[in-house]
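Q&A log
Question type: sequence-to-structure
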Amino acid sequence: MPLEPLESPRLAGTEGAEGPGTDDPHLPVTLANIATPAYSADQWFHYVANPLSAPCWCGNWVLVRGGSAVCAVDLTGRRYAKLPLEEGSGDYNDFLASTHIGQRAVTYCNVDCTPINGEPQKHCLVRIWEPAS
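Response status: OK
Response body:
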């Protein structure tokens, strides 16, 4: 069953209008939540890529699965890293399994490759990550 987009209720008169005589039907954010100015004054982190999974916290690092890899971002240290990929993981690469706040994060990937002069490898690799001290 397809879902219909929610419609915001119309406000009476000029209640919520951005200026006198405007027909804006939405309540200004500052009126909807008194704490908004303080909340908006905080610093924000904008992840440009479209995340493919929910982020998780690993110590002071936030991990998020972007387009082709899991990235770790240290917001306080203002640095980032891409987690190393496993050879043979193909286009799928690692996927973030954790969606929590903790000291460790879990990723997994399907490995399906045949190394030169080696046996074919087909397995699911689960890795546990934690911040280096």
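Response note: The first helix runs from residue 29 to 32.
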